[in-house]
Predict the 3D structure of the following.
Amino acid sequence: MEKASVSVKIYNSTYALTTSASEEQVLKIAAEVDRRMQELAESKKLLQTDKLAIWTALDLAAEKLEMQEKCAALKQELQEKCTAMEQEMQQKCIAAEQQMQEKYTAMEQQMQQRNAALVQELQELQARYERLQAAVRER
């Protein structure tokens, strides 16, 4: 990415920054640093720019660390939830497979019973047919 120079004003001083970040992003960051330095100057009654800069850097670093820890905790929580959901889905799949197997088995039994009934009916019809043929031959 191409680097460009961006002029920013932080705590009454102007700085020319050469960066590959967008100008809009650099200005937002500089505005946040300026705001924090102004607040610290008021709350801590500090006038020295170097001390204000160090306090600001420490505050920003503490926030960054806190955010990283929160992010790690959220990732862990998300991973745990994903694992739980995967297990739940596996259990549901197993239950669905069992239901399908039970239905298949029941249908297979019904088909076997129906087939047995049809075989018996066919045998009865064949016997009747043979009796009718025998009766016809006798006449």
Q: What stands out?
A: The chain has a mean pLDDT of 95. The helical segments are 23-44, 49-138.
